[in-house]
Amino acid sequence: MNYKCPKCSSDFITGTKFCQTCGCNLELVFIEKPTCPKCKTTYPTNTKFCVNDGTKLFRPEDLIPKCVICNIAYSDDIKFCPRDGGEIKVILTRQFSQPIYPNNDYRNIHNQKYPKASLGNRFLASLLDGLISTGLSIPAILFFVAGLDKLKGYDNDAAPGLFFMAFFFYLIPLCYNFIKDGLGQGQSWGKKALDIMVVNLDNNTPCDKGKSFFRNFISILVAIIPFIGWLIEPIMVLATDDGRKLGDKAANTQVIDKNKFN
């Protein structure tokens, strides 16, 4: 079926991604059988907004609920993925890759700045993550102590194996501290408990493990600066309007309160 480019009115066929005349990104601005995500009303091709509630329209396939972790599609009656336990929800993407979630719009249609997460919630989330890391470190500590005990008892054959196990189990909390903000919807376990999250400002989507590693790696480097390093990141959180520490600025991320968008 032939359609006309909404920018230059040149003809194109179904499935064309870019207009051959003006280069318009048809995947972003042209939608067949657009549907309202709120009232589910379907409109004529390339209609932009719902006449009932003014909501931006989307492709029907974009309204299929999917797992937030593995992205597998499920029916409306399934709430959690049987594969990985991820929440099943409709995740929509606005034009220019601004993500919206029904009743949970991370950036509004006026493109305003994200409000920063409250200092109290960030502190409590950090405290919880510290306790989680400590708990994950217990096996490593136990093996290390056992290794020292064997050395004191002159059992040198058993000590290396115990120290190796201590190192192996130490990698678990270490990895958690680096990738924690890329778990689930940009949330460490501590942040999830306080309903705050880390957003990737490059594409306005939840922070992934790569961004999480980078932001936390930079923060750790800053913290090891002699005498004042441990103060720099907290001061940045307090002093900046968006609450972004140096790790956030380097990775282009921000911590926000999810409940402010419900």
Task: List descriptors.
single chain; 262 residues; two-stranded antiparallel ribbon; 7 helices; elongated
Your description of this structure?
This protein is α+β, with helices and mostly antiparallel strands. Helices cover 37% and strands 10% of the residues. It has 7 helices and 9 strands. The protein has helices spanning 26-29, 119-152, 159-179, 189-194, 209-223, 229-239, 246-251, and strands spanning 2-4, 11-13, 66-67, 88-89, 92-93, 99-100, 196-200, 205-206, 253-257. Strands 8-7-9 form a 3-stranded antiparallel β-sheet. Strands 1-2 form a two-stranded antiparallel ribbon. A two-stranded antiparallel sheet has the order 3-4. Strand 1 and strand 2 (11-13) form a beta hairpin. Helix 2 packs antiparallel against helix 3 and helix 5 packs across helix 6 (229-239). The chain is elongated.
Q: In a nutshell, what does this entry contain?
A:
The chain has a domain at 119-261.
**Helix run count:** 7
Rg over CA atoms, rounded to whole Å, is: 24 Å
Poorly predicted segments: 94-112
The count of strands amounts to 9
Shape, principal axes of CA atoms = elongated
Please give the largest β-sheet.
Answer: 3 strands, antiparallel
Secondary-structure-based class equals: alpha+beta
Task: State mean pLDDT (0 to 100 scale).
Answer: 82
Fraction of helical residues: 25-40%
Strand order of the largest sheet: 8-7-9
